[in-house]
Amino acid sequence: MILTSPIFRKNKNFNLINSFVSLDGQSVINYGDKEHIKKLSENGCFVCPATKQNWKGMCGKECNYCITNKNVCFHIHFSGQKK
User: Fold this and answer.
1) Are 73 and 35 in contact (CB under 8 A)?
2) How many helices (H) and strands (E) does the chain have?
3) Where are the domains of the chain?
4) CB-count exposure of residue 45 (10 Å: 0-12, 13-18, 19+)
5) Which of 3, 12, 31, 47 is deepest in the core (most CB within 10 A)?
């Protein structure tokens, strides 16, 4: 499997986040539009602040939740959706 490659084990600047979270006993993607993220956050997922509109922080400095915890979800990139 590619994740066992030495490049991933040795690179300390690399953070791989599972793209699936459990919701009602099923695996669902951890990113999406506002409605999907609302449903995930209501069921215990942490919403990445960097994917929220107008966040001024810095990933890894003001927030490192996705590095140290599970069940993180992300707003899909804002291309084409109302902010």
Assistant:
1) no
2) 3, 5
3) 20-83
4) buried
5) 31
